[in-house]
Amino acid sequence: MPCSPLKISLMGGLLAGGGHISWFKGHQPVSAQKGVMVSADGRVLLIERAQFSDAGSYRCVASNVAGSTELQYGLRVNVPPRITLPPSLPGPVMLHSPVRLTCNATGAPSPMLMWLKDGNPVSTAGTSGLQVFPGGRVLTLASARASDSGSYSCVAVNAVGEDRRDIILHVHVPPSILGEELNVSVVANESVALECQSHAVPPPVLSWRKDGRPLEPRPGIRLSADKALLEVDRAGVADAGRYTCEARNQAGCSEKHYNLNVWGQPLPMDGAGLGQVSAVGRLLYLAQAQPAQEGTYTCECSNVAGNSSRDQQLEVFVPPQITGPREPHTQLSVVQDEEATLECNATGKPPPRVTWERDGEPVGAEPGLRLQSQGQRLHVERARAVHAGRYSCMAENVAGRAERRFALSVLVPPELVGDFDPLTNVTAVLHSPLTLLCQATGIPPPGVLWFRGEEPISPGQDTYLLAGGWMLKMTRAQERDRGLYSCLASNEVGEVRRNFSVEVLVPPSIENEDLEEAIKVPEGQTAHLTCNVTGHPQPKVTWFKDGRPLAGGDAHRISPDGALLQVPQANLSSAGHYSCIAANAIGEKTKHFQLSVLVVPTILGVSEDGADEEVTVTINNPVSLICEALAFPSPTITWMKDGAPFEGLNNVQLLPGTHGLQILNAQKEDAGQYTCVVTNELGEAMKNYHVEVLIPPSISKDDPSGEVVVKEVKSKVNSTLTLECECWATPPPTISCP
């Protein structure tokens, strides 16, 4: 990742013979500069604060007088995600308006974008009109509902981190006041209250008018703190009129009208069984009309001239009443695919008409909903997430209106998002990041737990839970991390599990791979070259000799797993440079061997019986003794004369470039037995040379000058005569007298 230390090390062993290591990026040499350092021996290239510009292909080239080799690295600079375009809204969102949230992020590798609502993954399943575009950059709502309000999060995740931006979505609902117009009557000097209840988001601002003019509180007229209740104490005729309550917020406004009638103080009159009945002149006043007061009433007028009567039929209308609790909302929960019934048992006269609304919209014919009992029962046949919401039943007749509210929650068991395979296979390279993603939806939003096998996983060193716990990340995967993992998403109505099989891929490693192994074997014996390899998957081993691949044959044998190379009956041709290359899908490693075949010394030309080689030379002539030896390692050559170590003389020298001996000017004393002794660590060999120096005959002369003269010899007749012929030669000469 940028601005983090990065160290690249050459792991190819040491160089011999005055080697040199050079670094290249692409085809350009890497030179020391700010933030980039090369160690003194050239084996380590250190980039202190890696940047994007440092990414690329690097090579280290090692060379000496014998040749060169190179090792390549592909450097990728990872960058944690950074959200460059966070989601935003121009302002409050009105009910049924479209919503578009856009999010963009950068990073390397390219981050994955996911959306959360109130900390849980967003799912298009069961949410009408919600859509997440491919790639996750855009989330849209075709028609915003009150239930869409909440905290939305854009989370960008890649292998080296995450970034998150939140935005609060408020769906504004315009005010809705129960009933539009209501007639209210009160007897003078009595108290009366006008109630104005409105449901809206955000809460509306209430205001009152009387006869079209703003109503200001005054003695006898009070407004509650929220202005939802207007109270008139000791109502007088001046208080009669048309009152209007207005509820207003950013989403709209709504009004409700009250026609307040103030009757004069009645005179009591008898009315058996009629409750409080009073007459005011021509007016018959029933203080609180009851159904029992229905019937025919007769008004009789009389004077001296006569009387007259008129019948009036009284029918008492009863405002609707809905049985049930008086809480602001009746909370109901139903599990998905099960049944639920919302009861709205309304009474009144005339019988009220019952209508239903959901989230402020009329409920009509739609799949899964059915009205029963003249609309007094709303039956949910197979509950789905789209059926959840705030329901209202309104009972209305000419006498008034009543309402009951329900908050219906459809409980949805957790459901996995994305891949539905029972087992997800995940692979990671050793020491690289490992990420497991688990997404599930449900109502209420499910919680998530992670397990390895049956053991729960908690955050710890190199182990993190991201994106609200829905992502498990290990920053440096180890071999021990291989195994079965699972995430368990659960809520109060169910649970679901996703299983992962994690394989940690391990690049090949060879025992003592950094050292070139020197192996020596006597000629004729078997050489064993061992290449102990580890890695996952199991690496394939290939053997080479002097750069050429080897296959099984008579000259050598390779074990089935490639770990052992045998060279039976090794000879000099078996010697050389061997290497084993272990490779799998992650990488490869090489180990080098130098095989030397040890040969017991032998000297060419030695007879089977070990007889001396006869060498003759005429005196004063040169002669060479050749000792050609075959041995490995290179032998030591020692010369002896007549069984004693040979001491070098000016007349005798070793032949350059050979193991031979040369007598430059043979003399009589140079004759004798010469021995060549060849020695190495396996043994020795000897060869004897019998050198004979030939000397031509020489006869002694009496003449001091050495000239040949005729010597006169006198002798008596019949006496013995002796003639001397003294001579020297090697070999001894034959003397004859002509």
Provide an overview of this structure.
The chain is an all-beta fold. The strands form 19 sheets. Strands 33, 36, 37, 40, 41 and 44 form a 6-stranded mixed β-sheet that branches. Strands 42, 45, 46, 49, 50 and 53 form a 6-stranded mixed β-sheet that branches. Strands 51, 54, 55, 58, 59 and 62 form a 6-stranded mixed β-sheet that branches. Helix content is 0%, strand content 53%. The two termini are 115 Å apart.
Quick recap:
It is built from no helices and 69 strands. The chain is mostly beta strands and 738 residues long. It folds into seven domains: 6-75, Immunoglobulin-like (Sandwich); 79-172, Immunoglobulin-like; 181-262, Immunoglobulin-like; 323-329 and 339-407, Immunoglobulin-like (Sandwich), CATH 2.60.40.10; 417-506, Immunoglobulin-like; 511-599, Immunoglobulin-like (Sandwich), CATH 2.60.40; 604-696, Immunoglobulins (Immunoglobulin-like, Sandwich).
Structural descriptors:
about 750 residues, Immunoglobulin-like, 7 domains, six-stranded mixed beta sheet, rod-shaped, disordered N terminus
Layout of SSEs?
Elements: E1 6-9, E2 20-25, E3 28-29, E4 36-38, E5 44-47, E6 56-64, E7 67-75, E8 79-85, E9 93-94, E10 99-102, E11 104-108, E12 112-117, E13 120-121, E14 130-132, E15 138-141, E16 150-158, E17 161-169, E18 171-172, E19 181-187, E20 192-195, E21 205-210, E22 213-214, E23 221-223, E24 229-232, E25 241-249, E26 252-263, E27 267-268, E28 277-280, E29 283-286, E30 295-303, E31 306-314, E32 318-322, E33 330-335, E34 340-343, E35 346-349, E36 353-358, E37 361-362, E38 369-372, E39 377-380, E40 389-397, E41 400-416, E42 423-429, E43 434-437, E44 440-443, E45 447-452, E46 455-456, E47 463-466, E48 471-474, E49 483-491, E50 494-510, E51 517-522, E52 527-530, E53 533-536, E54 540-545, E55 548-549, E56 557-558, E57 564-567, E58 576-583, E59 588-603, E60 613-618, E61 623-625, E62 629-632, E63 636-641, E64 644-645, E65 652-654, E66 661-663, E67 672-680, E68 683-699, E69 727-730
